[in-house]
Amino acid sequence: MTAARWERRVQLGAHPLAYPLVRGIGRIGPVVRVPRVGVVVSEAATAREVLTDTEGFTKTGPGSPADLWTPVVGPSVLLNMEGDDHVRLRRKLSGLFTPRFVEQLCERVAAEPMAALRAELAAGRAVDLVPVVRDLAGAVICELVGLRADRADFARAFAAATAVTSMVRLGRSRLTPAQLARGRTALSELTGPAAEAFAHGDPESVPGRMRELGLSEQEALGAVAAFVLTGTETLVSYVPRLIALAHDTGWLPRLVAEPGRADDVVSEALRFTVPSPVMLRSVAAERTIGGVRVRPGDRVVIATISAAKGLGGFDPDRPHPPAVQRLWFGAGPHFCLGMPLAGAEIRTVLDTVLAAGGGAVVDRKVARRVLIPAYRSLVVRRA
Prior knowledge:
The chain is α+β, with helices and mostly antiparallel strands. It is built from 15 helices and ten strands.
């Protein structure tokens, strides 16, 4: 089965109805008003215009991400902020994920799971990459909340983070009272240790570093929640899909011989898999998007999956045009602050697999009914 067919299976496993609907709307036109859904934008340049026009489009109005996140995480977590408050908080956080800090953080958190992966591959044993990346994500969560932990804690931290995100659905604009209660309880398992780390002020911990950068405790806990909630499942989804794509297209053995091309492959795999397949905005001021008039209160659904995939099939040799570049990380003032950390985690796993000779995918299963399309298992063995 080709890489494109496997990716389609992954998408349909997660969203058997929504994925064909979103892609079908994109084929009707670049901007389409859909009853009960909103105005769907499927073209990259138009999507970027919406994302960068923060006066016309907001993350805090009706039908925006704030409707989901604010009742769980509070009003100040980057995910649901706009205007001067958002600018001030981003400015404080701008010095957080510096290259040196990210490198040191990844060295600490990846040491144990990557050592285990190297040993298994070196012994010629088959390894399921999904739990490996899940351990890595759990280790990163522990680091983000300032918790010095072991492997058992990684699993608990991952479970706490995904207990919140697993309740989110593309068609769900709000959580029920019972879901809100579960989400707040799960999140408290992470923000509790983060509050302790902030109070202690150790600059080697992420909350302590936030305190050093001038954040209040509320701002620091909100930022931690934002990084955990947005970066956990996307990483666990993306890395196995990256390895699968590189295997299916013949790039995995090629990268062993040409490691300098790894960044091109990672970037194109992000474009092809689209970690954030849909982004939501609420209209704050009257605008015209691609000939469609929108008014305050309208919901805009940015179909990142269609905007990015419009470039064509998987091809690391093809440069990304400006409208498409890093669109899956957002654009403008809401561009993903955690991108440097995500990139370091991705390269850590990829480099470990390449060091074992590239590996080969020997078995895989698609995850069903999940928010972020993913493999339930992806088994590799040393090539």
